[in-house]
Design a protein that fits this description.
mainly alpha, 2 strands
């Protein structure tokens, strides 16, 4: 197996374990105040807000890390033609 794959898998498992521990221990209601997005403050469990922000950050990072798709550089099949003078 590839070392990178094992490392990434262990890292994701560790982060998810921390999210479970935090969700079990942070049950208090907190206030989220974002006046330009929400006209009134939002109230909810701290753990759910953290998991939501983590999910949005994870998706944003995944989108940014995918690059633009498509090929970069020239295609391997085309060779520059030699001009005859």
């Amino acid at each position: 197996m590839n070392f990178k794959l094992i490392f990434k898998s262990l890292l994701i498992i560790a982060v998810l374990a921390l999210l479970v521990i935090m969700g079990m221990n942070n049950r208090k209601t907190v206030e989220l105040s974002m006046p330009y997005i929400f006209p009134r403050p939002q109230f909810g469990p701290a753990a759910l807000m953290y998991i939501g922000f983590f999910g949005l950050g994870f998706l944003a990072g995944a989108v940014l890390m995918t690059g633009g798709g498509g090929k970069k550089g020239g295609s391997s099949g085309s060779k520059p033609s030699k001009s005859q003078s």
